[in-house]
């Protein structure tokens, strides 16, 4: 098969023109992972920015604003994203230097804290084994100048522009922010590592602070206050990509007071910092349907909460991109089915252009060995 | 074998000079020499994937290596979850091969939740040469009929992995007369024998002892410490037999907020820079069905997911008829690949082995995975004969 363009034409309208404050939900299943689609979102945002080809971007992108991306990944490490993006022609390490991209590592230390024994300079030893045989040289994460302190974290409260968040952010929790443990704010150069500590919404709040700090850093508003944002002085729009935040929900559960409601509020809280949000979720059959009343056995809390979170997110989304296996079984030239459907928030945006170019459709996709993706209709 | 020169000059492991296992010695030493000469990658048992060059290591089962999405092995840093239905222990056999391969290759093997007895019952090493003889006898008949350059094409596992992996896997210096320079990547083991190898004492057992910490936190810490304290280039194998099995694990460990963070941390550990490790986990599906959200999340966190569905005993008739030819062993069960390392992470689907129905056969010497095919119905012999003798001429008559 010939090499494919990085953005398949059928896909382009859905990945490159995200209306402001929109949420895109990307649902995946075990056999049809959505990383390739996530990468297309990265590509659409970052490549357009680097070549200043803004023809595709609508909305505020018309003003020549640069698109920036913050990728928060809970299941995959930096190495994976770097290698896969390279296959698309995106040099994430370089883009990180240029503050167009930031990676937030939700894998390495989310539950376990820093690796290796404490006291022995834990953060510098593992990456210093530079000639690591895994995937070539480690990007110069360690020798990058560590960025200046992120400055005051944009507070959640005084942002009347986005009304949703006011509901989501319980005011009493905000003062606890400065007490964020040092472990949760550890960083290696540009890579921020999340660490879940504590219980309930407070733990999520700490994660949110960390991510918000990275967003502020990337968007060049490290010192800006919330008022600047309200006045619309930001010179760039940030796309936030959350890769499988549902892991947080699955791995904590009700005993730690994190449920679907808390997760939804957490995502809403994050949305207010950025221009648009893309979120991948697992939508496997047991995770969605076991919770329904028709199921023949009692659903576990995991299933109930996951279904509530996934379905709730779909209702809040502008667009839902579903990936699933081919119904007729695996095939050699088809990787899966992509279904694009309207989310619950469809048409609520004032930007009608974007909505106009989006239409519901179902197509097949095929990921080649070289990383190229073709998206085509049935029978084409 | 005894007249073969023992080439100990470039051996990597100093402790391998013991004369414990002659066959292991005789094939390990040249392999080490070849590895040192051929590539900077001098770690035994690790080779670059034919697909994209990432380092892979063998699972100890050649046919399992071959279905892992063209990499010819389990890529370093990946976890493989083996699920098994029913009360059989085929997955356990896979784990033993995996651990034994690690022992033979001088990898560091960590066994979670099993007593030392488990390590003592690892299958014994038979020289790879034996396996080759075995295989060649079988293949000889076909070799007459097929031109040599096509002979691997139709074979199981053919393709990028098959064509390059097979010679390295099993044909050893003694096989063809032409000395094979490739290091032994995968060995053959005999389930009825016991493995004796100098480095078997290096197995690291992590018992499940109750403490005031959550169980999985303890396990993770000990794994982490063991990996952190070993020399940087060591290759690790983490073996977790029968995860969540209530006879081994306390009941609270099967809570999602207990096991899922552990698997996530394990994944983080394997992905950490500088760590070269793989993990293989088995889980009893009869106790934790795939239709539950917990198991689905465990699968989502793992890199590869394989399900074993052994045929029930009553299906012996089917099993015997399942053999494509009379001299093949009947399959003992079906194997489903739900997710393959790397391939599915990227989006999946382009591997030619995806979508195959696999059957597996466990014999004394090997765990073999091959495509499953139903034979023609037994009672339909006349019909088939009729097809050949009766229908064909008719077809010719129809030509005009």
Automatic annotation (TrEMBL), chain A:
<feature type="compositionally biased region" description="Low complexity">
    <location>
        <begin position="114"/>
        <end position="123"/>
    </location>
</feature>
<comment type="similarity">
    <text>Belongs to the ELP6 family.</text>
</comment>
<protein>
    <recommendedName>
        <fullName>Elongator complex protein 6</fullName>
    </recommendedName>
</protein>
<feature type="region of interest" description="Disordered">
    <location>
        <begin position="112"/>
        <end position="163"/>
    </location>
</feature>
<dbReference type="InterPro" id="IPR018627">
    <property type="entry name" value="ELP6"/>
</dbReference>
<dbReference type="GO" id="GO:0033588">
    <property type="term" value="C:elongator holoenzyme complex"/>
</dbReference>
<comment type="pathway">
    <text>tRNA modification; 5-methoxycarbonylmethyl-2-thiouridine-tRNA biosynthesis.</text>
</comment>
<dbReference type="GO" id="GO:0002098">
    <property type="term" value="P:tRNA wobble uridine modification"/>
</dbReference>
<feature type="compositionally biased region" description="Pro residues">
    <location>
        <begin position="124"/>
        <end position="136"/>
    </location>
</feature>
<dbReference type="InterPro" id="IPR027417">
    <property type="entry name" value="P-loop_NTPase"/>
</dbReference>
TrEMBL record, chain B:
<protein>
    <recommendedName>
        <fullName>Elongator complex protein 4</fullName>
    </recommendedName>
</protein>
<dbReference type="GO" id="GO:0002098">
    <property type="term" value="P:tRNA wobble uridine modification"/>
</dbReference>
<dbReference type="InterPro" id="IPR008728">
    <property type="entry name" value="Elongator_complex_protein_4"/>
</dbReference>
<dbReference type="GO" id="GO:0033588">
    <property type="term" value="C:elongator holoenzyme complex"/>
</dbReference>
<dbReference type="Pfam" id="PF05625">
    <property type="entry name" value="PAXNEB"/>
</dbReference>
<comment type="similarity">
    <text>Belongs to the ELP4 family.</text>
</comment>
<keyword id="KW-0963">Cytoplasm</keyword>
<feature type="region of interest" description="Disordered">
    <location>
        <begin position="1"/>
        <end position="68"/>
    </location>
</feature>
<feature type="compositionally biased region" description="Low complexity">
    <location>
        <begin position="22"/>
        <end position="40"/>
    </location>
</feature>
<dbReference type="InterPro" id="IPR027417">
    <property type="entry name" value="P-loop_NTPase"/>
</dbReference>
<feature type="compositionally biased region" description="Polar residues">
    <location>
        <begin position="55"/>
        <end position="64"/>
    </location>
</feature>
<dbReference type="GO" id="GO:0008023">
    <property type="term" value="C:transcription elongation factor complex"/>
</dbReference>
<comment type="pathway">
    <text>tRNA modification; 5-methoxycarbonylmethyl-2-thiouridine-tRNA biosynthesis.</text>
</comment>
<keyword id="KW-0819">tRNA processing</keyword>
<keyword id="KW-0539">Nucleus</keyword>
<feature type="region of interest" description="Disordered">
    <location>
        <begin position="371"/>
        <end position="400"/>
    </location>
</feature>
<dbReference type="GO" id="GO:0005737">
    <property type="term" value="C:cytoplasm"/>
</dbReference>
<feature type="region of interest" description="Disordered">
    <location>
        <begin position="159"/>
        <end position="183"/>
    </location>
</feature>
């Amino acid at each position: 098969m010939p090499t494919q363009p990085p953005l398949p034409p059928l896909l382009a309208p859905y990945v490159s023109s995200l209306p402001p404050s929109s949420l895109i939900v990307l649902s995946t299943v075990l056999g049809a992972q959505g990383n390739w689609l996530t990468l297309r979102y990265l590509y659409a945002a970052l490549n357009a920015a680097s070549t200043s080809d803004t023809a595709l971007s609508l909305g505020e992108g018309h003003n020549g604003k640069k698109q920036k991306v913050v990728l928060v990944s809970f299941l995959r490490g930096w190495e994976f994203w770097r290698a896969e993006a390279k296959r698309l022609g995106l040099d994430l390490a370089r883009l990180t230097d240029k503050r167009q991209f930031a990676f937030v590592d939700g894998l390495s230390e989310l539950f376990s804290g820093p690796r290796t024994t404490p006291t022995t300079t834990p953060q510098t030893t593992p990456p210093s084994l530079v000639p690591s045989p895994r995937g070539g040289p480690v990007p110069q994460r360690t020798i990058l100048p560590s960025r200046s302190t992120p400055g005051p974290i944009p507070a959640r409260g005084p942002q009347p522009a986005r009304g949703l968040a006011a509901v989501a952010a319980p005011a009493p929790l905000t003062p606890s922010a400065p007490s964020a443990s040092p472990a949760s704010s550890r960083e290696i150069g540009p890579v921020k590592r999340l660490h879940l500590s504590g219980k309930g919404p407070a733990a999520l709040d700490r994660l949110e602070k960390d991510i918000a700090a990275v967003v502020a850093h990337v968007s060049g508003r490290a010192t800006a206050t919330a008022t600047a944002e309200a006045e619309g002085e930001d010179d760039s729009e940030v796309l936030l990509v959350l890769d499988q935040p549902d892991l947080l929900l699955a791995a904590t559960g009700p005993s730690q007071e994190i449920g679907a409601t808390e997760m939804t509020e957490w995502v809403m809280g994050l949305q207010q910092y950025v221009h648009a949000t893309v979120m991948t979720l697992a939508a496997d059959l047991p995770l969605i349907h076991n919770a329904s009343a028709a199921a023949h056995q009692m659903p576990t809390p995991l299933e109930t909460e996951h279904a509530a979170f996934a379905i709730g997110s779909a209702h809040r989304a502008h667009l839902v991109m579903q990936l699933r296996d081919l119904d007729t079984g695996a095939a050699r030239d088809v990787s899966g089915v992509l279904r694009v459907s309207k989310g619950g928030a469809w048409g609520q945006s004032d930007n009608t252009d974007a909505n106009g170019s989006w239409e519901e459709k179902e197509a097949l996709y095929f990921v080649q060995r070289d990383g190229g993706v073709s998206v085509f209709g049935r029978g084409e | 074998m005894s007249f073969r020169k023992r080439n100990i000059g470039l051996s990597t492991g100093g402790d391998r000079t013991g004369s414990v296992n002659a066959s292991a010695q005789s094939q390990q030493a040249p392999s080490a020499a070849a590895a040192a000469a051929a590539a900077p990658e001098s770690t035994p048992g690790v080779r670059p994937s034919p697909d994209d060059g990432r380092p892979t290591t063998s699972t100890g089962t050649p046919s399992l290596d071959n279905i892992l999405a063209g990499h010819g092995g389990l890529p370093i840093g990946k976890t493989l979850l083996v699920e098994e239905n029913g009360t059989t222990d085929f997955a356990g056999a896979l784990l033993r091969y995996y651990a034994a391969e690690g022992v033979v290759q001088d990898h560091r093997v960590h066994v979670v939740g099993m007593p030392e007895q488990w390590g003592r019952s690892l299958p014994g090493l038979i020289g790879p040469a034996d396996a080759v003889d075995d295989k060649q006898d079988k293949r000889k008949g076909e070799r007459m009929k097929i031109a040599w350059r096509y002979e691997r094409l139709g074979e199981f596992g053919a393709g990028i992995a098959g064509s390059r992996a097979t010679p390295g896997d099993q044909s050893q210096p003694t096989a063809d007369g032409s000395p094979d320079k490739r290091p032994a990547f995968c060995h053959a083991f005999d389930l009825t024998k016991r493995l004796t190898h100098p480095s078997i004492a290096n197995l690291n057992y992590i018992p499940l002892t109750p403490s005031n910490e959550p169980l999985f936190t303890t396990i993770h810490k000990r794994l982490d410490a063991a990996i952190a304290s070993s020399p940087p280039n060591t290759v690790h194998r983490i073996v977790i037999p029968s995860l969540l099995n209530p006879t081994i694990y306390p009941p609270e460990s099967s809570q999602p907020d207990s096991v899922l963070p552990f698997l996530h941390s394990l994944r983080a550990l394997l992905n950490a820079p500088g760590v070269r490790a793989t993990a293989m986990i088995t889980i009893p599906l009869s106790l934790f069905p795939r239709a539950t959200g917990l198991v689905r999340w465990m699968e989502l966190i793992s890199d590869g997911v394989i399900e074993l569905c052994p045929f029930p005993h009553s299906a012996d008739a089917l099993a015997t008829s399942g053999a494509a030819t009379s001299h093949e062993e009947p399959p003992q069960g079906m194997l489903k690949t739900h997710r393959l390392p790397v391939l599915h992470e990227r989006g999946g689907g382009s591997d030619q082995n995806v979508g195959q129905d696999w059957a597996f056969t466990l014999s004394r010497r090997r765990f073999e995975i091959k495509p499953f095919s139903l034979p023609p119905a037994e009672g339909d012999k006349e019909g088939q004969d009729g097809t050949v003798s009766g229908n064909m001429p008719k077809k010719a008559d129809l030509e005009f």
